[in-house]
TrEMBL record:
Segments passing through the bilayer: none
SUPFAM superfamilies associated with the record: PRTase-like
Taxonomic lineage from the root: Bacteria, Bacillati, Bacillota, Clostridia, Lachnospirales
InterPro entries: ComF/GntX_DNA_util-trans (IPR051910), DZR_2 (IPR044005), PRTase-like (IPR029057), PRTase_dom (IPR000836)
Listed CDD domains: PRTases_typeI
Residue span, Double zinc ribbon domain: 20-78
Name used for this protein in its record: ComF family protein
Entry similarity comment: Belongs to the ComF/GntX family.
Pfam families, per database record: DZR_2 (PF18912)
Lineage: superkingdom: Bacteria
Length: 259
């Protein structure tokens, strides 16, 4: 019983299970989609240079790369903050981070991750997040990880939620609980990628529902795959802020370029 409580036996069983799965379904490199051999882990070393980690200067709020160090905020965040000021409401979230700039090879990676059942990519993304942002996550006092939810209709069509895959792996590597039921997507919105900022905001109005039990958590980390204008994070953060303001942070795999 003591071993079970400590988690040692459970983790060992998980490792054995992963080993069996990897023999039957070898993991693939998130960049080239080739099979990962026994020597390398998560990604081919030659493929790492094809990804672009987010670098400075960044927007102080969402973490999006900006063109000048004199810019405190990207245009999207400046617009959002002004909206909150005019409406006299709390900011939707406190700060965001991202792993990679959404350019080059990562675009095909994310397409396969979302639509081609390459769920195993999540392990690499989570490991990268831990290596790069573990201090930030700890300093924020994060005690729950919430993936951006998918509407049940879209979930039935696709079979999985890529944000949830990322959140689950991140939870396993950090020991922070993942709670996917605290935020629900109750409105099946149209694809947002072709919409502008105002269209996205209007489309996401009333799209998310937050459980009252979310108040038990002190600091909340929302995770998603791609951050474009921030409308999804804004919408979820706004709903959470109605119940517990000032507690939301955001972490995404990819993020677009700011101005």
């Amino acid at each position: 019983m003591g071993i079970l409580q400590s988690g040692g036996l459970v983790n060992k069983i998980k490792d054995i299970g992963r080993g069996v799965i990897n023999l039957v379904f070898p993991p693939r490199c998130p960049v080239c989609d080739g099979i990962i051999g026994p020597v390398e882990r998560y990604i081919h070393s030659r493929c790492c240079e094809k990804l672009f980690p987010v670098e400075q200067p960044q927007c102080m709020r969402c973490g999006k790369p900006v063109l000048s160090e004199r810019r405190e905020y990207c245009d999207d965040c400046a617009r959002a903050l002004e909206h909150h000021r005019q409406m006299r409401e709390d900011d939707s979230y406190r700060q965001g981070k991202a792993l990679f700039a959404y350019k080059g090879s990562i675009k095909q990676t994310m397409y396969r991750f979302k639509y081609s059942n390459r769920r195993e990519y999540a392990a690499y993304f989570a490991q990268t997040a831990v290596e790069r942002y573990s201090d930030w996550i700890q300093s924020c006092g994060i005690d729950v990880i919430i993936p951006v939810p998918m509407h049940r209709k879209k979930m039935r069509q696709r079979g999985y939620n890529q944000a949830e895959c990322f959140a689950r792996e991140l939870s396993e590597k950090t020991g922070i609980r993942m709670a996917k039921g605290l935020v629900r997507r109750v409105k099946n919105t149209s694809p947002l990628k072709t919409m502008g900022y105002v269209e996205r905001r209007n489309c996401l109005e009333g799209a998310f529902q937050v459980a009252d039990s979310i108040v038990q958590y002190d600091q909340i980390l929302i995770v998603d795959d791609i951050y474009t204008t921030g409308s999804t994070a804004e919408s979820i953060g706004h709903e959470i802020a109605k119940k517990c303001p000032g507690r939301v942070y955001v972490l995404c795999i990819c993020i677009g370029q700011g101005s």
